[in-house]
Amino acid sequence: MSIAHLLEDFVPRSGGGDSRQLMSDVALEEERLESFEKGYSAGWEDALAAQAREGEQLKADLVDGIEKLNFSYHDALQQLFEKVEPVFEVLTRAVLPEAIAEAFGPQIVEELKQMSRTGAEVPLVLSVPTGTSAAIQPVLEASGFTELTLTEDETLGPAQASLRLGNTAREVDGAGVLEAIRDAVDTFIYQTKEDIRHG
Would residue 33 count as lying in a domain? Predict the structure, then answer.
């Protein structure tokens, strides 16, 4: 934009061919104020637009960070679970059955001791699974239980026994305990897989 209209023209006029007019001081001040207002408004609008763009970028970065964090958490959980699941399988399929089998004899002896404290003259009857009486007999003799009747019952499963003293009966069910533990572990594994799959 030319500023020629703001300067006084000292060139002599010849016949009115020049159509330029000089601005008054008031008009000049009004134009300055109008220009200032336009510049101020444009700057304000630019600042608001820049702030909005920056806010949108911050939101996008935050969402991206949360998604990465969420993925990292689920990825870590998945990897951890992949390492732990075989341990649970070995525990419930190999270690616990052996531990229950080893504790089966001592558990029967403990139950027999509790039942024999009643002092009744009624004989103790111990029923064990078919084929296990030969293994249990030495444990009973070593514990001093020679005056009891040892029978095999084909309805009993591994790590199960039935103790009777007159009308009182107790059940030893290591297999039931093992099955309950296996069910709990299987439920945990299933639920964890579902939680990982569904986030």
Answer: no
In a domain, 4, yes or no: no
Q: What mean pLDDT is predicted for residues 46-53? A: 90
> CATH number for the domain including 172?
3.30.2320
* Total domains, the chain: 1
Residue 8 placed within a domain: no
Question: What pLDDT shows up at residue 101?
Answer: 74
- pLDDT confidence of residue 138: 84
| Angle at the Cα of 8 from the Cα atoms of 5 and 11, rounded to 5 degrees | 105
Cα 193 off chain centre by:
10
Reported as a pLDDT band with limits 50, 70 and 90, residue 172 is confident
DSSP for 28-49 reads HHHHHHHHHHHHHHHHHHHHHH
pLDDT at 39 over 80: yes
Domain that holds residue 107: 62-198
Q: Which amino acid is at 20?
A: R
